[in-house]
């Protein structure tokens, strides 16, 4: 299996552009608009939710540029690469961003990470495969087990202000690590605090080892101290 990641070229875009796209209103309105042409031209569609199959909106393998608010992953295969196929994942993580990716992503499905209730609410997303692929276990509360992803978590995202502690045992036991959403991205009134780990190595945990999650920093091992100065957009790449 070959897996490629394309890091988004993250650019701020002006508030005027935002209102032009009809995204005024709640600061935490999360969306991604995909365009069939380069440089935000051509047929476009605004996505606000998980979309496992872009052919439903006639956008399969069509998106060549996109602008969004929040954390979005664009997958080469349908269903977020549940089939563990050869896969390209383009991920964009910022308060707001635009990317002209051409045919690099060949997007057939897309989904966001973070809370369904608010852009910067406290939340965690755990994924079956590296780089946010496959099945997911997500939530905003303690989980004494991680359901279907028991001993299968291979990447994760946290958002909001709360740190989370991840354990290798059920019921908050075993080896553990605390993760702060220490990155900060802001654009006008939109704020996003987050951290992401493409694979468990970066957490210092074995792959497929997480079995429970607790809110708060309950471990001696702390990643992304809150003391880190909020560094803005240039921290994202
Ligand atoms: C997109 O815009 C950039 C900057 O204005 C320009 O250099 C580039 O040629 C454009 N690409 C296409 C395919 O129009
Ligand atoms: C894009 O994906 C489709 C099927 O999802 C595939 O047939 C095509 O070869 C892919 N193109 C590129 C450039 O990877
Ligand atoms: C979550 O777990 C932590 C650590 O065990 C505990 O301090 C906290 O009270 C729990 N919160 C809830 C809502 O159960
Ligand atoms: Ca595709
Ligand atoms: Ca796994």
Order of helices and strands: EHEEEEEEEEEEEEEE
Quick one: biggest sheet?
A: 6 strands, mixed
Q: What's the helix count?
A: 1
CATH fold-level topology of the largest domain = Gamma-B Crystallin, domain 1
Broad CATH class of the largest domain:
Mainly Beta
Structural class: mainly beta
CATH superfamily of the largest domain: Crystallins
Shape assignment = globular
Number of domains: 2
What is the terminal separation in angstroms? 25 Å
Give the fraction of residues assigned to helices: under 10%
Mean pLDDT: 87
Q: Please provide the count of β strands.
A: 15
CATH architecture of the largest domain: Sandwich
What binds here, in terms of ligands, is: 2-acetamido-2-deoxy-beta-D-glucopyranose, calcium ion
Low-confidence stretches: 7-25, 229-237
Provide the gyration radius in Å: 17 Å
Report the portion of residues in β strands: 35-45%
Structure keywords:
single chain, 237 residues, mainly beta, Gamma-B Crystallin, domain 1, 2 domains, six-stranded mixed β-sheet, five-stranded antiparallel β-sheet, 1 helix, 3% helix, binds 2-acetamido-2-deoxy-beta-D-glucopyranose, binds calcium ion
Quick description:
With 237 residues, the protein is mostly beta strands.
């Amino acid at each position: 299996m070959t897996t490629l990641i394309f890091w988004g070229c993250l650019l701020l875009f002006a508030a005027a552009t935002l209102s032009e796209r009809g995204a005024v209103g709640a600061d935490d309105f999360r969306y991604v608009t995909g365009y069939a042409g380069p440089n935000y031209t051509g047929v476009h569609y605004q996505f606000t939710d998980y979309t496992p199959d872009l052919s439903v909106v006639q956008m399969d393998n069509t998106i060549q540029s996109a602008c969004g608010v929040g954390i979005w992953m664009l997958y080469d295969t349908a269903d977020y690469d549940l089939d563990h196929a050869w896969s390209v994942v383009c991920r964009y993580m910022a308060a707001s961003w635009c990317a002209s990716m051409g045919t690099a992503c060949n997007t057939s499905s897309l989904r966001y990470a973070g809370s369904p209730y608010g852009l910067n609410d406290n939340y965690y997303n755990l994924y079956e495969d590296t780089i946010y692929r496959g099945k997911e276990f997500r939530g905003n509360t303690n989980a004494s087990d991680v359901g279907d992803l028991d001993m299968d978590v291979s990447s994760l995202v946290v958002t909001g202000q709360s740190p989370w502690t991840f354990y290798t045992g059920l019921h908050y036991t075993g080896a553990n690590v605390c993760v702060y959403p220490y990155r900060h991205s802001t654009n006008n009134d939109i704020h996003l605090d987050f951290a992401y780990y493409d694979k468990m190595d970066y957490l210092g945990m074995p792959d497929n080892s997480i079995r429970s999650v607790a809110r708060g920093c309950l471990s001696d091992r702390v990643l992304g101290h809150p003391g880190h100065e909020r560094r803005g957009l240039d921290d994202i790449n």
